[in-house]
Write the C-alpha cells for this entry.
Amino acid sequence: MEDTPSATPDPATSSLIASDRVEGTKVFGRDGGKLGAVHNFVVDKRSGQVAYVVVSTGGFLGLGQAYHPLPWSAFAYDEVQGGYVVQVDRRMLDGGPSFRPDSAPVFDDAYGRRISEYYASAPAA
Amino acid sequence: MEDTPSATPDPATSSLIASDRVEGTKVFGRDGGKLGAVHNFVVDKRSGQVAYVVVSTGGFLGLGQAYHPLPWSAFAYDEVQGGYVVQVDRRMLDGGPSFRPDSAPVFDDAYGRRISEYYASAPAA
C-alpha cells in the first residue's frame, strides 16, 4: 500500500525526527544563550541509541567553524525553544574535545571515554 | 583543545556511526538477499533512541524508488556483511507502509503504531 501525500512532520506534535533533519537544531547553553547547532548525531549502530551529539559553533561560510562532540546524556529537549538545552557554557565547550570539519576523529571507545570524562568532570550548573 | 586530523571512522573497529553516514548502509532480507539500503533513521529526539529505519528500494535515477519504514526492533547489525539483516522479505516489504521520496508521511504516534502492527503481525521467519 502506498500512502497519499501529506504534510511534512510537525515538531510540535511528534517527538520523532528524521536523522537527516536533526542538522541545524539549535543548542542552548546553561545561561540560556545559543551555543550552536546540531551538526549530526553519532549513533550506536547495534543498539540504535544516540551516543554523542556533535555541536557546530561559529563559522561564517565555514571559517572558524568547530565541531564539539558532547555525550547524549547532557541533552534535554526543550519544546518551547524548539531545541536542545545543555548544562554547558561556551568556555567549557571550547576547552573540551573538538575538531575541524575537515578532520573528523575516529569515534572509537577511547575517544568516547575522553568525551564522557571531560563532561563528567565539568563543574555542576 | 583541538584534535589533530585522523582517519575517518572505521566501521570494523567501532559500533558508532554518524547519522549523516547511515544513508546507504545495506539492508539484507531473511533469505540473505539485498532488500535495499538505509535512507535514514527516525529518532526520538527526547530519548535519543532510533524508532524506525527507512529502507529505500528500487529506483534507477530515482524512478520507482520507494521508502519503507520498519521498526528498529526488526534490525540486527551483521558485522561480516557490513549491513543490517531484517527478518522480512520483499513481498512483506511491498505489502507494508511505504511512501515516495516526495511525499514523506507525518511520523506521529498513529503512523508509528501502523508500522509496528504491520510487522508484528508478519509471519515468523
